[in-house]
Automatic annotation (TrEMBL):
Residues 1-32 are annotated as: Disordered. InterPro entries: Myb/SANT-like_dom. Pfam families: Myb_DNA-bind_3. The lineage of its organism: Eukaryota, Viridiplantae, Streptophyta, Embryophyta, Tracheophyta. Residues 32-126 form the Myb/SANT-like domain. This is Myb/SANT-like domain-containing protein.
Amino acid sequence: MLLSKGAQKKKSPIATASKTHGGSPKGKTRANWNSMLEKTLVDLLHEHNTPEYKGNNGWTPDAWNKIAKEFQERERYAGFSKVQIQEKEKELKRDYRMLKDARKQSGVSWDEKRCMIQADPPIWDNIIKSFPRAKKFRNKSFPLFEALGELHDGNTAEGTYNFTSTQPNGPDL
């Protein structure tokens, strides 16, 4: 069907929630997340943070199916696929672990009210050298930090008890 210039079709709300990523293979759409969508995802992860849905290696396939379905019901306009939701969870987990490690550096403090790292510029430069992805949090809060900590602390491999074969007795406990 040919449309005149003045009578072009309007985009649906779903189409505006994601866009085609210019360099992506096969014209895949890129999910556009905002803080409210991220919070919805983290809330759903908390709701499914039970032995039935989460094992040692993360959420079960059944849990991901339920999380994706419930996310799509709560955020109908977003139109994200299960894979996009899983990728966002991985990104949030990676950001949480990075900020957790960055907070351990000398001269770094955490502003509870603003949910962000506080440090002098030279220390921030050092943080960014150690954690290049942390640059985006130099002037941006991460309000999901505590909620993600509740989900992942004690459940992610942190290397705390890692030792090499040259350490015959393992780490001192």
